[in-house]
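Record passed on here:
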Amino acid sequence: MKLGKIIGQVWATNKVPQLKSCRFFVAQPLTGRNQKTGHPLVVADPKNLAGVGDKIVYVTSTDAAQAFDSGIAPVNAAIVELVDYVD
C-alpha cells in the first residue's frame, strides 16, 4: 500500500465494462512525512471514495486489479482507503 494525495481528475469517453461506474484521479505519491515523491499517476477509484485534495491509500499491480467488486479490472493503480491523518 502507498500513500498519495489527489491533485486532479481524469475523464474517459470510452471504458471497458468493468470500469463503467469508476472515476479516475491523478494522485501525487507521498512519503510517510507527507513529502512529494516520484511522479503523479492515474488511479482508479472503484468505491467512489475520493475527491480532489483528499489523502488516499492506493495499491498497484495485481492488488489494484483485484480492488473491484467484480474481482478484476484492467487497472494499474486503485484507491482502497481515505486517510484521516498521518501521525
The domain at 2-82 is CATH 2.40.50.220 (OB fold (Dihydrolipoamide Acetyltransferase, E2P)). The radius of gyration is 12 Å.
